[in-house]
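Researcher: We plan to redesign the surface later, but first we want a full-length starting point. Tokens attached.
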């Protein structure tokens, strides 16, 4: 089981996406595949900023969204994200809020996070990251 970061899911959508990432994601079953509700926000936001955003979002919504178990930002995840934000801020190492919620989701479920952005997450204690 694994939590997918937004950039990993984006690889599946892109024609030019990494073929190794695409194959790895396609090999996962629904029962093994999780993502944060923040990732859903990032996917839609990223699509809707583009000129062809609506058709792209419809493709994502019909082909990608149903294949993933979406984890909502419940109290435990919000608390973890807030604590991580404060901890990293005190260390002078702030991190994007979306990444905090995605990391907190993986930590709350005790699952590894698949990402191509290892640098974004390597500062988060206890988070197992797969590149």
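Model: Full-length starting sequence:
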């Amino acid at each position: 089981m694994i939590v997918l970061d937004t950039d990993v899911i984006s690889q599946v959508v892109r024609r030019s996406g990494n073929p190794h990432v695409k194959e790895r994601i396609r090999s996962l079953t629904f029962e093994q595949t999780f993502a944060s509700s923040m990732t859903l926000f990032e996917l839609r936001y990223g699509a809707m900023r583009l000129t062809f955003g609506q058709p792209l979002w419809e493709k994502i919504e019909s082909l990608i969204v149903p294949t993933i178990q979406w984890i909502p930002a419940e109290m435990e995840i919000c608390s973890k994200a807030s604590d991580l934000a404060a901890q990293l801020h005190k260390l002078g190492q702030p991190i994007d809020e979306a990444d905090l919620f995605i990391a907190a989701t993986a930590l709350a479920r005790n699952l590894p996070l698949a990402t191509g952005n290892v640098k974004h997450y390597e500062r988060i204690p206890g988070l197992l990251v797969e590149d």
